[in-house]
């Protein structure tokens, strides 16, 4: 080959200019190299912006506003009419429950060599069951990539930005959203952040109930390992006056009827019925009678013995003391049994205790395996009725009520209350409840009424003085 021909062949370097920007300015005329810096600025900048040839002239001590505003969005005045509705989203980082406890080393620098990704499964709260074998459908779609282990095990700034972007995409037709936020536990690496945004989406296109269960928010929760609780902002969100609680697996960590069943060796049979009833698979009243029938012959003093094994849920004492200090009326409405409900109410300073009554054989002082016929069964409808009647008795609007429970027999009560919270609930209940939380401490409930950590500490100090 002729060496002269090879020397004349254009090379990659010869095809490029000295400027990457000039190479890619396809829709703008190139700027002659002969221009000086002043001519370049006049060409590039908006003619409406003042050009200062000497930024420190005439007075170097005087700071002048350039008039340039840096923003992710087009900046313009976006005043909202007085009285525009607002929605509060409380974000809780689930620090005790990572999405992927076993991370692949390629996915996270926190993972050690040899770690593997956990087997795919249905996320808790997204289906009536998380057992893959019981879902006769096509395999679930891959879960969103977990981002909290990459950007911070808390509600990070990027997490918050992503949430605001998610909110911006929801309204139809599109409308600019005004937002503000505050950290409720700590400013540095917060676990709980409250975001207020307005206006809400047009209810004709997206109702508030549908917004709470929107798949975009569900995906955001999965990506960032957070839970989002949405509430309409208003004075009654922050100022409630009545709180009602389920007992088993809510204020206490036990299922009382299962504990009784241990005494006579039928725990397995009773537990299976209890689980199906709490998941809504069985009629509650019928299942309760069936379980109670298995307790025939148990000594009537079993409730005294159970008090030593009952574990009060983390944060329950502190929550009840704080609510009491704020002037709340409180009630425990339980599908369990009256003796323990009354004992728990005494322990926590609760005003009302209503539960089921077991019939006792006065001769043998044992349980007969039946319920007292003159007393109503505390099922879902009865819990809702009790919530309404206690509120009316104390002249409290239903919008100023709070209800917390975990079972299917709590759903009617949760939907009737001003704020209904499914606490560490069964999967079906989490799907159907207005809101749900799966934290470690019941004190998280206080964040839902707008209290931050400083408020909670102040309430704790005040309750000790009472």
TrEMBL record:
Family: Belongs to the HAD-like hydrolase superfamily. SerB family.
One GO MF term attached to the UniProt entry: magnesium ion binding
The EC number(s) this enzyme carries: 3.1.3.3
InterPro entries recorded: HAD-like_SerB, HAD-like_sf, HAD_sf, PSP
Region (Disordered): 120-142
Active-site residues (renumbered): 246, 248
Key words of the record: Amino-acid biosynthesis, Hydrolase, Magnesium, Metal-binding, Serine biosynthesis
Name the UniProt record assigns to this protein: phosphoserine phosphatase
Keyword hit for Metal-binding: yes
GO biological process: L-serine biosynthetic process
Keyword match Metal-binding: yes
Domain of life: Eukaryota
GO CC, alphabetical: cytoplasm
Pathway, per record: Amino-acid biosynthesis; L-serine biosynthesis; L-serine from 3-phospho-D-glycerate: step 3/3
Organism: Penicillium atrosanguineum
Cofactor(s) recorded in Swiss-Prot or TrEMBL: Mg(2+)
Signal peptide: none
């Amino acid at each position: 080959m002729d060496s002269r021909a090879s020397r004349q062949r254009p090379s990659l370097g010869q095809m490029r200019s000295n400027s990457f920007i000039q190479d890619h300015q396809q829709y703008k005329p190139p700027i002659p190299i002969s221009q000086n810096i002043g001519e370049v600025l006049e060409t590039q900048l908006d003619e409406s912006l003042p050009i200062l040839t000497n930024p420190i002239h005439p007075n170097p001590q005087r700071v002048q506003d350039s008039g340039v505003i840096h923003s992710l969005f087009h900046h313009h005045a976006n005043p909202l009419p007085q009285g525009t509705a607002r929605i509060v989203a409380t974000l809780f980082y689930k620090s005790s429950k990572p999405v992927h406890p076993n991370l692949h080393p390629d996915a996270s620098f926190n993972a050690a060599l040899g770690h593997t990704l956990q087997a795919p499964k249905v996320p808790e709260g997204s289906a009536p069951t998380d057992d893959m074998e019981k879902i006769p459908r096509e395999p679930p779609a891959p879960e969103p990539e977990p981002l909290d282990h990459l950007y911070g095990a808390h509600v990070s700034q990027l997490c918050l930005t992503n949430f605001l972007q998610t909110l911006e995409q929801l309204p139809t037709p599109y409308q600019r959203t005004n937002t503000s936020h505050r950290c409720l536990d700590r400013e540095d690496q917060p676990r709980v952040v409250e975001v207020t945004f307005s206006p809400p989406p047009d209810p004709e296109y997206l109702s508030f109930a549908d917004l709470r269960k929107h798949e975009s928010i569900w995906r955001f929760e999965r990506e960032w390992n957070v839970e989002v609780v949405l509430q309409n902002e208003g004075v009654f969100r922050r100022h409630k006056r009545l709180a009602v609680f389920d007992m088993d697996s809510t204020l206490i960590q036990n299922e009382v009827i299962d504990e009784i069943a241990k005494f006579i060796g039928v725990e397995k049979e009773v537990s299976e019925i209890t689980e199906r009833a709490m998941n809504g698979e069985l009629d509650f009243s019928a299942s309760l009678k069936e379980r109670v029938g298995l307790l025939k012959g148990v000594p009537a003093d079993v409730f005294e013995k159970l008090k030593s094994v009952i574990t009060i849920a983390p944060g329950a004492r502190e929550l009840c003391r704080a609510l009491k200090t704020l002037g709340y009326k409180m009630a425990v409405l339980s599908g369990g049994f009256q003796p323990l409900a009354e004992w728990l109410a005494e322990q926590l300073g609760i005003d009302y205790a209503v539960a089921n009554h077991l019939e006792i054989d006065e001769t043998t002082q044992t349980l007969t395996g039946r319920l007292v016929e003159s007393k109503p069964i505390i099922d879902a409808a009865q819990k809702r009725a009790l919530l309404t009647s206690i509120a009316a008795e104390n002249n409290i609007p239903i919008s100023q009520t709070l209800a917390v429970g975990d079972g299917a027999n709590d759903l009617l009560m949760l939907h009737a209350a001003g704020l209904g919270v499914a606490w560490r609930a069964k999967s079906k209940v989490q799907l159907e409840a207005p809101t749900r939380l799966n934290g470690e401490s019941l004190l998280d409930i206080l964040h839902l009424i707008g209290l931050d950590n400083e408020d909670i500490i102040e309430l704790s100090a005040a309750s000790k003085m009472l």
